[in-house]
Amino acid sequence: MPFPFTNQAPIAQQTTRHYGITSAISLALPKEADLVQTQRLIETMKPYGVFEEDLELQHRIMVLGKLNTLVKEWIKEISEQKNLPASVTEEVGGKIFTFGSYRLGVHTKGADIDALCVAPRHVERSDFFSSFYEKLKEQEEVKDLRAVEEAFVPVIKLSFDGIEIDILFARLALQIIPENLDLRDDALLKNLDIRCIRSLNGCRVTDEILHLVPNIENFRLTLRAIKLWAKRHNIYSNILGFLGGVSWAMLVARTCQLYPNAVASTLVHKFFLVFSKWEWPNPVLLKQPEDCNLNLPVWDPRVTPSDRYHLMPIITPAYPQQNSTYNVSASTRAIMVDEFKQGLAITDEILQNKAEWSKLFEAPNFFQKYKHYIVLLAGAPTEKQHLEWVGLVESKIRILVGNLEKNEFITLAHVNPQSFPGPKEANDKEEHSTMWVIGIVFKKIEGSETRNIDLTFDIQSFTDTVYRQAISSKMFEQEMKLSAMHVKKKQLHQLLPNLKRRKHSTDGLRQMNDSNLDLSIDSDNSMSVPSPTAVPSSTPNKGCTLGHPHSPVGASPGPATVSHIEATGEAEGAKPTVTRQRSITATVPPSQTPPPTMGPPATKRQGSPTSETPTKKSRSDKVCYLCFVSNLTVCMCLPSQGVSTADLSDVPVVPKSPIALVKNSIKLRLSR
């Protein structure tokens, strides 16, 4: 089992072997200045925790060794129970393989380990989720043990002596599992069920990547830098339509193939050069696809029509080849290409000694980038329900982004991969909630035109999709809530009071939820970035709360009363004016709009302009934005001098009704 790790700048050595599907762009050897820049890059990355200490690495190796021993013992016990001959029982084997960031050698401090338990043919999957699960339960070092048997890729999740591990299972058509087994052998896939093939795919892809790069140490250091840059720039999330860990690894691997003798500082620069100019949707391939005649579905636009509409295909090198970026949308691709161009400009400056490497890792202020935002809020009464609910909602946010992209008045929708704690309700009932923020760019308005935009359909079809999924998976509970609201840039601090602090924060790490488990494609969906937020104060504010007599969310159960937001916001470059309209929404059944599926690029959906003329509501200049949304004429949030408080309890809470009863209505009026 390989456990590669290095903190040192690799020594350059000339590579003559041909890598990839094309010849190299340059075979130039590094100069002394390149080696100096590489060492500077290493020193710049160290404070971000991307390198693990040797002591921590040894602890991981020890934990994996213990786990490997448990697997061998368990398989031997199963073999004896099934009356296999003693000669077979002694040699039956079994092994733990690793994949993902740990196998690639680019894991960070505190990162989890993706593992695969490989067993011989007489060991059933049911044995893995029963007797092996029980064996793990008996171990003192094992905590937080849970099995997810019905997942797309079934998994056992646990913490082993402080190390988080996800264990998949694959049963091979072999009588014994040899120690020197090479999972890259395509013949191993014969006569396997699809779940075993999915489980094997993570290891097979990772091993192929390492086999296809000219210099593994240069590849690893470059990948560490690119992953850190992507996380800092909020474009690291497979689940939300950006790229996950394996996709970033394949882009870096392709760069290494094109510049086989370059060191990390040069490779980082060439990475941005290559992919800022890449002609998408031409696919990124590390090797020519192979057909093993096993009749498994592979990515092939010549055969599969839906593959022709993938926007940013990056194809895994192991059979069956798949597109690891099928979640990418027009917006997320545009955002990433723009980031590639900015990265190229910065690395040009760095290599000319006009800037330091730290500039590349400066986090842009997402909350100053756009003038309009949509905030999603998902809440549930218990922590367990909240984890399940947030995982489901997050896995479907890309559907909302797709809906917004189809709106004829929207140019771009940018979801921030970081989630934030939601506002606390000022009642005695405990609730757990999470927020996501989506930046919106509207088409510019010409002349004196005024435009009414209704996003109700886009929002409601998204919530309906989430609702149906929750019902079909028998996960939905009556108290689970999902709400959307429109917020302008200058009001974001009301929802996220620590915005001013987060710009230069580099303290600690925050782990995003990664419950949409598709480890066959990408096991590294999570975002670990310096924490932008702290846990808000739970001190209740006596302003806009559930119990407030004027608040629309304090109503008794019955027909849902919703704050119907009709914002006269500004188009890009236009001055804002604001009106608000209140509407009462009766019980609304979920619409029958099917969730978006991959197919030909949809034409822009015509917006639904509002027919009624919004009535302007007079108010005191002392009324804050949030009380104004709630139709209060006297501000209950602001102190007497008119300065807004920074406590999250100032934020009006969402309606109590479940999403099936609430029509999330967002209407905007854009004018110059």
From TrEMBL:
GO terms for cellular component: nucleus. Residues 20-213 form the Poly(A) polymerase nucleotidyltransferase domain. Residues 218-362 form the Poly(A) polymerase central domain. It is an enzyme of class 2 (transferase). GO terms for molecular function: ATP binding; metal ion binding; poly(A) RNA polymerase activity; RNA binding. It catalyses: RNA(n) + ATP = RNA(n)-3'-adenine ribonucleotide + diphosphate. InterPro entries: NT_sf, NuclTrfase_I-like_C, PolA_pol_cen_dom, PolA_pol_NTPase, PolA_pol_RNA-bd_dom. Keywords: ATP-binding, Magnesium, Manganese, Metal-binding, mRNA processing, Nucleotide-binding, Nucleus, RNA-binding, Transferase. It is found in: Nucleus. Its EC number is 2.7.7.19. Its cofactor is Mn(2+); Mg(2+). It holds the Pfam family PAP_NTPase. It comes from the Eukaryota. Residues 500-617 are annotated as: Disordered. Residues 365-432 form the Poly(A) polymerase RNA-binding domain. The keyword Nucleus applies. Residues 512-540 have a biased composition (Low complexity). Belongs to the poly(A) polymerase family. This is polynucleotide adenylyltransferase. It comes from Myripristis murdjan.
